[in-house]
Every structure is written in C-alpha cells, then in structure tokens.
Amino acid sequence: MRIDFISMSVTTFIQRRFHFGQLPFLTFLVACLLCAIIYLQLQRVKQQHQTINQRVDFLRHREDSAFEKTQDFIKRNQEHYKMVIYEEKFCPHNGSCDLIKPFIHYESRQMLAPSYGVSACVIYKNFSTVLTSIICYLYDILRYQEKVKEMMKDTYNHRLCMKDNEYHSFNIRDRMTPKTAEKWTNYLIVREPLERFISGFVNKCILDVVNRDKPCYGCDENITCVMEKQYQSLKTMSNNNKAARKHTVEDAHFGPQSWHCELRAHYLDYKILQYSPAKTEELLEELLTDFEEFGVPLSVTDDIREQVLGGKTFHATFDTPERIHYTKVVEESPYLKELLVKMFYYDYVFFDFPLPVLEIDKTSDS
Ligand SMILES: *[C@@H]1O[C@H](CO)[C@@H](O)[C@H](O)[C@H]1NC(C)=O
Ligand SMILES: *[C@@H]1O[C@H](CO)[C@@H](O)[C@H](O)[C@H]1NC(C)=O
Ligand SMILES: *[C@@H]1O[C@H](CO)[C@@H](O)[C@H](O)[C@H]1NC(C)=O
C-alpha cells in the first residue's frame, strides 16, 4: 500500500515535472549518471588518501618523531601505490616487519666550512672523499691553496683537514655562526640504493679483499650470500641493540643511508642531492653554483671544477664489467630484488628513488 503510494507519487512527480517530453528527461538521466560516476571517483581518491594517511600514522607511530612532517613528502611522492603495497606485504599488522628500520643512529661525519655556512655530512662512497676535500678547501682557502697541490690526492689518511673541521655531531653548528651566509646549508649526498650496493660489493668483496679477515662474511664473490648475511646483520643491529652496531667495513658500506648523519632528528635540515658517478659533473655544478651564491670566489670554484673533473677518477672506473654483471644478477632475480627492497625500502622512500618493481606488483594490479 505504502510502496504503491510512494511509487505513484514519484511517477506523478516525474510526469508533472517532465511533461515537456522525453528528450530533456533522458538528458537529466544521463547527467545524473555522470554525477554519480564523478562522485564515486572522488570517493575513491579520498579513500586512497585516507589509506596513505593511515600508513603515515602507522609509520610515525612506529618510529616516533622522525616521521613528523614527512606526510607532505610522501604525498608528493609518485610512488604511493608501490609503497602501500610493499608495506602491506613486508610489514603485516601483527608486529613482524621484514623491512629494515630507517633512522637508526649509526654514524654522523660532519664537515664544516663556517665562513660560507656550508656543511656536508658524508656517507662512505667515492664522491664523499671529494666532497671532504672541497669543504676543506672552503674551510680555509689560503691555507688549502698553499698546502695542497693536487686536490684529488688530498684524501683518506693524508687529508689536510683531518680533525680540523670534522665532527661527529650535527649540533656542533649551534656553536658557530656562518660569516658570509645567512644560515647553514647542510648537504647530504645520497645514491640510488642498488647502484650503491653494487659499487660497494665490487669494491669491497671483489677488488679490495686483501688484508681483511674474512671479507664480506666469507662469501667470496657470491652476491646472494653477501646479501643474505648483510640482511641478517642489519636486522640484528636494528633490533635496538646498540652493542651490535659495530663498525665493520661491510656494515658501513652496505647499511642503509638513512642510518647516517643523524637523519632521525635532522632529515629536514639537509639539502639532499642525488649522486651517480655518471652524473658527477651535474652534481658538482649544482654545488658550485650554490657556493658562488654564498660568496665563494669564482677563482676557487673554477679551480675545484678543473681539479675534480680534470682527473679521470670518475670516468675510468664506473661502468666496469663487474658492475654491469652484478647489477644484472640482482635485477634478474626476484629473490635478490626482494631482499634489496627489504634492506633499503626506506632509503628508496626518503631519498626519493623509484622502488624496484617486484613480482607482487603484477598480482595487485589485476
Ligand atoms: C605475521 O603474519 C605473517 C603472515 O601474514 C606470518 O608469516 C608471520 O609469522 C606472523 N608473525 C607473527 C609474529 O605472528
Ligand atoms: C651462494 O650462496 C647461496 C646462499 O648462501 C647458496 O645457496 C648458493 O648455493 C651459493 N652459490 C654458489 C654458486 O656457491
Ligand atoms: C672508489 O674508491 C675505491 C677505493 O675505495 C677505488 O678503488 C675506486 O677506484 C674508486 N672509484 C672511483 C669511481 O673513484
């Protein structure tokens, strides 16, 4: 009875309202349909944002303040989807997470040039030795020009600035005021995780193995073995066990980059630049342009440019057959790629490198 009444009144309403013919009525229906589709789409986008926000809350909860203000970063990141999927796969909500945690305090090697308000935190890799020399140059230009004839040889244990402007704490800046610049610019140079790992593997497990006891966990040149052992070592260290954070060659070169430079507290205080040996020139150009802005004389930046790019350090050894071979080995093995993601997931996320595509992507796309 009641339903009859309602449907009757609806019909009358429609008839009254649309007595002027069928065409407008159809148009009205199509419009409704379009509205409904748009509405549903908007809901989907909203839902997706909610999922991401929940993820961020989840991350933040797990790692406290380090994740503050990173929501913005994550929103900008094109990789949302992969991130959510990988998080779900490797960190189910029951408390067991296979991803190596980010922002563990491992070490912090700070180089300062207070005159120009320039500082750099360096993570082991080739460009870091060059950057150390550059900051030393800016630290005291006259002394550097007088004492150092070849910049590219001012490295390792023979470097001029050893301990002069080198610290282990970010907060040392509080005690110095930059002279010519308004504020500090703190550089952090990061590398694509796979490229960095392969570079470390070739250098430390294949080329530079003499004088080291059981290098690379005694795996010889077996990259699967090295990755498995390294994963276990990182897992142990990240289990909140300070004593286990020993400084081995392996951990220093294969540990996550987010474990360096006090990033837990200072992630947002760095100007983070990506480095790849093939792009040394671009990176150097970016740095020198900044330095000129901070008042470093052109004669000095020109000198740096010439000395760094003139040598063959950066061209000669990049595309070696070993590198190409081992990169392919990892890229072609679903197992090793997964291990790579487990180790360096947060380096990919926080330094803005695209995550490797894992097999699980395919199933979740359908
Ligand atoms: C959590 O769940 C995963 C599968 O969803 C399972 O493999 C793992 O053993 C569980 N861990 C704990 C601590 O319950
Ligand atoms: C490399 O190491 C893995 C894991 O330790 C092992 O399963 C595999 O057999 C090794 N491969 C070779 C060629 O020794
Ligand atoms: C990187 O450093 C290693 C030594 O740690 C050296 O053998 C290698 O030639 C360097 N590579 C480049 C590209 O400078």
Automatic annotation (TrEMBL):
Q: Which Pfam family, any one, appears in the UniProt record?
A: Sulfotransfer_2
Which superkingdom heads the taxonomic lineage of this protein's source? Answer: Eukaryota
| Keyword Flavoprotein attached | no
- State if Transmembrane is listed as a keyword: yes
UniProt keywords, alphabetically? Membrane, Transmembrane, Transmembrane helix
Picking any one GO molecular function of the record gives: chondroitin 4-sulfotransferase activity
GO biological process entries = chondroitin sulfate proteoglycan biosynthetic process; positive regulation of response to oxidative stress
Please give the start and end residues of each transmembrane region. 20-42
One cellular component GO annotation, for this chain's record? membrane
Q: What is this protein called?
A: Carbohydrate sulfotransferase
Q: What organism is listed for this UniProt entry?
A: Mesorhabditis belari
